[in-house]
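Much of the work behind modern protein science is quiet bookkeeping, done one molecule at a time. The protein below has been through that process, and both of its lines are reproduced in full.
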Amino acid sequence: MKKKALAVALLLSGTLAFHGQAFADEYSNGTIQGEALPNVVHGVNQQASGSPKAPWQDASLTQAAQAANAGNTGNSGNGNNGTGSNASVSNSSSNAVSSSESSTQGATTSNAPLNVQNGSTTPTYTDSTIGLGGASITMIKGEQSGQQISIVIESNDGSLIVVDGGLKTNAPYLAKYIKDRGGKVAAWLLTHPHEDHVGALAVILEQQKKEGHPDYYNIDPGQIYYGFAPLAFYEQYEPAHRIPMMKEIMEDLAQYDSAKRHESSPAGTSFTYGNVAVEVLNTPYSIPIDSGNNSSVCYMITINGKKLLITGDLPYEAAGKLMEERGADKLKADIVQMAHHGQHGGSFAFYSAVNPRYALWPSSQELWNKRKDAFTEDQESYTVALTKFWMNKLGVEKNFVMADGNWVLK
């Protein structure tokens, strides 16, 4: 895995300028549980005019970097994109780096809690500037403090498309989310059989068969699309602790309605619900290195003309095969789900082909905090610090991070 030979140590939160701009750590705005959310998440300072005139407020930026960033107007999009009012913060380098330390109209807005007892306490942030034509993309944190991928796309006609679903412990939250929207899923897309991806679906499929679990009644998981490598292959190359979950989801799917079960659909398989079109990009790869993640099935989802690339936990090896098979031009997308929660996934060549405008980071707070670790551009390990550097280098405008709470893009 040869990458650039530049080996100058960098801190991600330092001054990074590309294409004539300096890029923020994160940017978002919208609403939080129906209340006004300041346009300050992880330190972005929005002035009352809606234009980002102040420096990025990352506490680790130097005064020189702040001065260099002053007056930057390249990253904010269209100012206040949510339903709340604009807010501004102090320019001090020790100022807020999360929404918990900034205010709207004098009231403190709490940052997303890492551990919650009830999913209803999890903040929901909304960005309505993506241009999805009445559809939405929701990245669910739910009650989880760890990493998972649980994404629900709602088309302009109300059809639901679920991507993975997350951990087993996310099942109650996800089930309620689905039932609150009618209980019927049009299509369920699975990337690979790891518990932080398929656990919730396994619970829903199993508990529907038992009495005394009304939370899971009246949920139709819809058409389920998936592709896994053979169990014997996983048993040979995967860590032993992962095998029980793999067996479990395979058994659950084998018992599911065969008319609604789509296993290893060929690349190019496509279907449409409302203004949402889904294309399967690959069948699972059998690579004897990081075999579960390398078997990730990717999907290109087009919503009102905007493309969302779902990568699952796609590592370097599978990302290379996908580019070889599909061609870099077929991977271009407006929004990318960061592979493997933002670490040890994809490659700079892969993300360069995607060239996204927005990035979804299904990352825990613990993982996201590592974006400020030291790194070198030629290191072999694709840490969060390095992949975040790549996103800056590619000019990504907004990073939506699961650690903050649920994210809704419209």
About this structure: The chain is about 20% helix and 20% strand. The mean pLDDT is 76. The CA atoms of residues 153 and 191 lie 15 Å apart. The longest helix spans residues 195-207.
